[in-house]
Amino acid sequence: MSTLTQDVRMTPEQREAFERDGYIMLKGVLNPDEVAHYSAAIDRAYDREKAAGNLGIDGSLHKLSAVTNCHELAGLINHPKTFPFVWEMIGWNIHIYHSHFDVHPPIRVQKPPRFEWHQDGGRQNRELETDPRPRVSVKVAYWLSDVSEPGRGNLKVVPGSHLTNWIQGPPNRNMEWPDPEGAIEVTAEPGDAIFFDRRIWHARSNNYSDFTRKVVFLGYLPRWIHIRDEVADLPNQPWWNDLDDVQKQLLGAFGNGDGDHQWGHYPKDVPLYNWLAERDLFNPDNPPLKA
């Protein structure tokens, strides 16, 4: 659905806001046709998972490895209106390590309390010892449903909390507990995207509205860190060769077998490096290695 272009750059004001708050809103990055296309693809995937008995007891779906399990989402992985923010923030030697698409129908019965506030990264948050811990990765959330009002399954964040390793929580996650101080629900319309630092403390609001929540999350980090998504069989899929070289890199495609491709020792072997070099788009904060 999309072709990578060079007409979007992170402005100094956006970079300042991202560094300060840990996230920025990108309005209208998907046009109505794109929203309809990706929403319909997720609907088909949802129906397949429903037929297979893989939905939650509330009818919800949290499906990992987004493109592996819904290849029609491939156009989002290097979307021209969001992907420049990724490479400008964490460079060109990157891939998608973790992704998922979520469907949450309206909740008709009050859910029991559960404290779901967290930082992304899993064991990174236990095994990296600095304070604050390093950014490591960034994430893009594409909204395909209307969360322009709170309580529709909105992303909840604490602005600025990406620089905080710990927040106050309950002794038991299944007890009633208030949201952290300063927490907000981020409102968005279909086609909006949220670009955020994996360290920001975040959660999801319960969807007690009449809307079904639909959203796609794609997380990016350096290629020398292992991918969480299931990608091993992707080169055998019939749609794999429809992707461009940058998309294949982002989904974990390997290089020429010399063992160094993921480390970026040879920049000209990295498709995104070449794409940026041809267009003189390098971010001076992330220069290539000296040859």
List the helices and strands and how they pair.
Blueprint: H1 12-21, E1 23-26, H2 32-51, E2 61-64, H3 66-69, H4 83-90, E3 94-104, H5 124-127, E4 138-143, E5 155-157, E6 184-186, E7 193-197, E8 202-204, E9 213-222, H6 245-250, H7 271-278
Antiparallel strand pairs: 1-7, 2-3, 3-9, 4-7, 4-9, 5-6, 5-8
Describe the 3D structure:
With 291 residues, the chain is α+β, with helices and mostly antiparallel strands. It has one domain (12-278): q2cbj1_9rhob like domain (Jelly Rolls), CATH 2.60.120. The chain has helices spanning 12-21, 32-51, 66-69, 83-90, 124-127, 245-250, 271-278, and strands spanning 23-26, 61-64, 94-104, 138-143, 155-157, 184-186, 193-197, 202-204, 213-222. The strands form 2 sheets. A 6-stranded antiparallel β-sheet has the order 1-7-4-9-3-2.
In short:
This protein has 291 residues and is an alpha+beta fold. It has seven helices and nine strands, in the order H-E-H-E-H-H-E-H-E-E-E-E-E-E-H-H. The protein has a single domain, classed as Jelly Rolls (Sandwich), CATH 2.60.120.620.
